[in-house]
Amino acid sequence: MTEQLRDTAAAGGDVRLTGISKTYGASTAVHPLDLTVPQGSFFALLGASGCGKTTTLRMIAGLEEPSSGTVLIGGQDVTALPPYRRPVNTVFQSYALFPHLDIFENVAFGLRRRGKKDVRKQVEEMLELVELGAMARRKPHQLSGGQQQRVAVARALINHPQVLLLDEPLGALDLKLRRQMQLELKRIQTEVGITFVHVTHDQEEAMTMADTIAVMNGGRIEQLGAPADLYENPATTFVANFLGQSNLIPAEVTGRSGDELQLSASGVRLALPKARCATEATRVHLGVRPEKITIAHACTEVAEGRNRVAGTVVDSSFIGVSTQYVVRAETGQELAVFEQNMDRDVRIAAGAPVVLHWNPAHSFGMDATQAIDAGTGEEAA
Amino acid sequence: MTTTTEAAPPEVVPLTAPAKRPRRKLTPYWLLLPGIAWLVVFFAVPMIYQGSTSLQTGSLEEGFKVTWHFATYWDALVEYKWHFVRSFSYAATATVLCLAIGYPLAYTIAFKASKRWRNVILILVIAPFFTSFLIRTLAWKTILSDGGPVVGALNTLHLLDISDALGLTSGHRVLATPLAVVCGLTYNFLPFMILPLYTSLERIDPRLHEAAGDLYARPFTTFRKVTFPISLPGVVAGTLLTFIPASGDYINAQLLGSPSEQMVGNGIQKQFLNVLDYPTAAALSFILMALILGMVTVYMKKAGTEDLV
Amino acid sequence: MTRLIGWVRRNLVVLAGIIALAYLVLPNLVVLAFSFNKPAGKFNYEWQQFSTDAWTDPCGVADMCGSLTLSLKIAALATLGATVLGTMVAFALARYRFSGRAATTALIFLPMAMPEVVMAASLGTLFLNMRIPFGFTTILIAHIMFCLSFVVTAVKARVMSMDPRLEQAAQDLYATPVQTFLRITLPLAAPGIAAGALLSFALSFDDFIITQFNSGPTTVTFPMFVWGASQRGIPVQVNVIGTAMFLAAVVLTVVGQTIGNRRKARA
User: Fold this and answer.
1) Cα–Cα distance between A307 and A294 in angstroms, integer?
2) CB burial class (10 A; 0-12, 13-18, 19+) of residue C15?
3) CB-closest option in C21, C117, C202 to B268
4) CATH T-level fold of C60-235
5) Is the pLDDT of residue B99 over 60?
6) What is the CB-side half-sphere exposure of residue A104 using CA atoms within 13 A?
């Protein structure tokens, strides 16, 4: 089965979107965008609800007609093709299993529509692949959420699509099952080598599964890249806040020395590698991830060459593997700090004066004209 | 799929599909056409046509002509004013009774009955629909007959003395009195009250009752402040489904009442089928329709915008 | 005694419900009982003596079974017509956005918010003025007209509650629009269509007012036969038919439910 799937994958499953957009009356769901998903990759479209990610996916599936632009799959222009003539299959949000058909018939549906006579062997093999062989004659509502999800995947994969589209496929599952299914889907994708395009609002899910992530916001792609790249080097405040958590400090560029920019944040001097600054502007937001910061009692000596900011602990919460601090910094912000629980300094409690320091190489910079709280989920809409 | 997989190596691009997918903008109109045409021709047009008929004069032999004879309306109103009064007062009484009788039953089905009993009761509520309602109405003639058990019981309790005094019954009998007609109307339209009530009650999460109890509401307060307001859409639907047909009914008045209980429906029927005075029949039904539409509009506005509790 | 009062107080609602149910079912029991009566005169209102005459010879009355056949025929055809037309309208309303939607909804709603006698008189007036002879066709036209709205309501509610993603999934799995409709949409909408059809049949079969205004001298439906009989004298066979219909309805519903339950349990 997997070998057959591999063969189809070789037929070419790259997705190329050029200038594709979608407008509903006066509102624009997706601004014209270009996107290439290479053959065989696991690609995630990540964003909050209403950012246009599902609309983009549906335009690839043919369920939504683009207002402009073209969709190419494996080099073939499919823009004008209806969904039932496109070499793609979709795993729908909440699965959309046909309630009046049993599991076997759900999985066999696509094969039968294309006039395949002898489907029994294929369906049984596919059900084995997703470990549901015993459930063939059950109705969808008799299955658990995780089982339904696997049926949805089997129902799509059995058609050997060139591209598999997944629309929030794990959204309805509880956390533990979600983790398990993430690994399962990743395993299937590696095994069959089909291009997966996965829509999700869960940044951890996207980072766990995808080779490449496109972060979408307001109908546009904010940034595209490998998970680690996006995390370590976000280009916009939205990406910095949406993907993980970031501390952003407004600062002014005061000078440059070699590969580093000298910054001043409310009088505090900080350094930022030039290569990690996404803007040429003089007013920037300096960002640093909470786990990159070391927290120490105010009287501790800090090594030369590190960025250091003094502050007072506002709150600390112990969560097992780490302790999370909120520190009111001398620069005026509340900064988050995650500290591994190895050698805890008991003096660091609420109200304690502390000093925060980090390697300047872990800083990133972005244009200060953007909203500092974009993508936190708390921004003024 | 076979076509796309095998015939589409990246270089060859066989674009057999039409350049633009067919627009399906006309589909809804094709779907609507036969049904809506039917309703326009056999419902809307007759309604308008009736307006013109009501302004005609003439006779069956000579034919009718539109003469803008508005006096027909006035004459009809004068002749049938008590019919209108009876129609609306009987219908209103029957509606209130239906609500009073139907609500406990709907409540019992929704909250008190086990799943098995729920189905049994629902079948019993719906099944009478399948016995011709004329036959069932005639059965009331037996139940309420002068020598029957109901009259006997009411006599023993001296209740008929009271209802005679109130003018609800007369001569110590129930048949051929307003009471019998209202009783028949209530019976006939009770399922139309119960079903919408049940539908709206059934959707209420029983945990709301527990929550209200948890927040210090006694059972009756829970009903008044939580259950009833939520079931209001069902109450509105049920009262409309009862009041409208009841006010146009003439069967109960004919079978269970005497000539002095006749309703507007009886008037329309008589003018149309016996007297053959079509303008008067048309004027009567036009007035009835206008009055009902007016009342329903006012009622729905009140029920929709004001808190009834 | 206090205990009894306490029990009554706690179960007041249920008791009231049971009384209401008794009120609903009582006439059917009377109809059943009097189907075994042997009335003294032409009317069957007072109990005389037990007899199974009417049950052994249900068609013994002139014209009654003919009127029953006519009613069944009209009900079947009216159901067919109203279900087809109504389902189409329901799909248009549930699935498409189009101009004139508000007017369409109003046109569907009005026949249900109109006293029957008004519709009956106005349609009758139209037929009269158009010089269309009253008879089978006029009854059928009228029945389809008033059943249509009920079908639309039933089917629309069902179609609106269907997840549109199911049809999209079918399209995604290579089903053409026609295949999608036949294999997914129609089976899923079937309960709503069946409910609408059943309601149509019951309404049409039992209709009297609209029929009385739009029927001809030779087309006497069963309700019209009963009406005529109530003036001239009611044969016991009328009660037999009434009871048989009631029992058939109960049996059909119970059987339908049992099959549904078993299918659920087995699946």
Assistant:
1) 10
2) middle
3) C117
4) MetI-like fold (1.10.3720)
5) yes
6) 12
The whole-number average pLDDT for the span B11-32 is: 58
B219: its two tokens:
């059972």
Select the residue of A93, A100, A159 nearest C173 (Cβ to Cβ).
A159
Is residue A381's pLDDT more than 50? no
Domains and CATH numbers, chain A: 2-232 (3.40.50.300), 237-367 (2.40.50.100)
Q: How many CA atoms lie within 13 A of C95 on its CB side?
A: 27
Chain centroid to CA C196: how far? 9
Give this prediction's pTM. Answer: 0.80
Amino acid (1-letter code) at residue C123 = L
Q: Is A98 on the interface with C (CB under 8 A)?
A: yes
- Does residue A322 sit in helix, strand or coil? strand
Check: CB of residue A156 under 8 Å from CB of residue A91: yes
Interface touch A12/B1, C-beta < 8 Å: no
User: Is A142 near chain C, with CB under 8 Å?
Assistant: yes
According to CATH, the topology of domain B81-264 is: MetI-like fold (1.10.3720)
Counting beta carbons within 10 angstroms of the beta carbon of residue A335, is it exposed (0 to 12), middle (13 to 18) or buried (19 or more)? buried
- Where is pLDDT greater, at A327 or B126? A327
Pairing of strands A283-288, A247-257: antiparallel
Query: What distance in Å separates the CA atoms of residue A242 and residue A230, rounded to the nearest whole number?
Result: 11
Residue B20 has pLDDT above 90, yes or no: no
Is residue C232 classed exposed, middle or buried when 0-12, 13-18 and 19+ CB atoms within 10 A define those classes? exposed
- Record the tokens describing residue A47, joined without a space: 């964003």
Q: How far is CA C196 from CA B176, C26, C87, C94, C149, in A?
A: 37, 28, 9, 15, 9
The Cα C17–Cα C6 span in angstroms is 18
Interface partners of C (3+ CB pairs, < 8 Å)? A, B
CB contact under 8 A, B251 and C208: yes
Domain ranges of chain B: 81-264
Q: Say which of C172, C175, C184 has its CB closest to residue A89.
A: C172
CA distance B19 to A66: 13
What residues does CATH 1.10.3720.10 cover in chain C?
60-235
| SS3 category, A315 | strand
In sign, the C-alpha dihedral spanning A168, A170, A174, A178 is negative
DSSP three-state, residue A185: helix
Quick one: pLDDT at residue B15?
36
Q: Angle C215-B52-C126 (CA atoms, 0-180°, nearest 5)?
A: 20
Q: Are B163 and B201 in contact (CB under 8 A)?
A: no
Band of residue C266 on the pLDDT scale cut at 50, 70, 90? low
Cβ burial C91-104 (10 Å sphere, 16+ → b, else e): bbbbbeeeeeeeeb
Residue entry with tokens 């590698």: A273
Alpha carbon distances (Å) from A88 to A11, A68, A81, A92, C174: 13, 20, 11, 13, 10
Q: b/e map of B146-181 (b: 16 or more CB within 10 Å)? A: eebebbeebeeeeebeebeeeebbbeebbbbbbbbb
Q: What is the pLDDT of residues C58-76, one digit of tens each?
A: 888 878 899 999 999 999 9
